[in-house]
Amino acid sequence: MTETYGLAPSQTVGPYLAIGLTRDLITPQVVDPADPRAIRIRGTLIDGAGDPVPDGMIEIWQANAAGRYNHPADDRDEPAVEDGFLGFGRSGTVDAGRFEFVTVKPGPVPWPEGGMQAPHIEVGVFARGLLKRAVTRIYFPDEEEANAADPLLSRLDEAARATLVAVAEDGGLRFDIRMQGPGHTTFFAV
Amino acid sequence: MPAEHAPFPEVVDLDRPGVDPPYDYPDYVGTRLRAPKEPLVIIPATLSEVTGPAYGESAIGELDHDLTRQHAGQPLGERIVVTGRVLGSDGKPLRGQLVEIWQANAAGRYRHDVDTHDAPLDPNFDGAGRCLTDDDGWYRFTTVKPGSYPWKNHHNAWRPNHIHFSLFGRAFTDRLVTQMYFPGDPLFEFDPIFNSIPDEKARERLISRFDLDLTQPEWALGYRWDIVLGGREATPLEDPHHD
Is the link from the previous residue into A79 a cis peptide, with omega within 30 of 0? Predict the structure, then answer.
């Protein structure tokens, strides 16, 4: 099929996204903070002038701790889907650009051409001034070996790779997102 | 370091051709410090991209789809019904899709601390709604027509009337936040956000259609707006330097 229906274009979320999107249904808690496996991932969304972006929103999507997505396209027999784990979270950045998620570290998932990808979390960035979502990934600092072998990370240069690996801090992880300028986050076209 | 892999192709921007705005669109001043400026790295669709969240089983409040009935009284403004279908790029209806909307009130004011426009808040209007699509992909909201408002992007800048829509689709790559407009708006030609969409036909797809059949006598005007998601299924890896 080459027939394509008229796709809806993207438009910015604008400055008032909190009214509609950061409400009660989808929260920054991907898992219960009391879950013994819970980790905190904090960060700041930063613009090209180095200033925090207080009217943005970060979304994350990930596999469960065993490396299984809760979605029909992940139709592997193992590992299993976990009851009550969807793997999606949303955090506003109203607190001086800061966002924070409570989640679990995902397990590794397959790469299409074979082998496994290092554990990672998909990230979507929305804000006034972004006419469409920006996409990046969070990798984990305690996965040096898997990160070195990862088919995506290993094809990036050192500086680009460094922006994708979270930093251990205060018992959790820190992952700042820089939209522009020195040390800007590596963004993906997906 | 395992350097035997060839680098992934990079692009300045990977649009669905003609459909999505570029990140970098200087007429919209807000893009200048926020748009990614460096090449994007194209990654193939892995399991992480072809999966995504679904909220079809969510408990949605009985009145979440009716923005005119969330308070003791009715909001001021022109009462409208906005309805349409959410479809995949293959034209198939997407069932159980969470659709989230937010908007200004009839006077052009958002219920938000940052909105300082000198227009009144409406005690009977919050401007937030959500619903799930039915088995044929239909969503439906009852609300009031949002007003235009000034936004200081340039001299005498006013946004066309619009409702913000958030949609998920089948996969992480389908995720879309956009805005629905109203037919015949005189502000279209002056609005850099609307005009950031490269293709005129794509732009027009964000304009709802007045529909007398959806209009409820003595009650509300009806607007129809269908939303097609996706279109990233075939990433053009071989042509990274388009435009």
Answer: yes
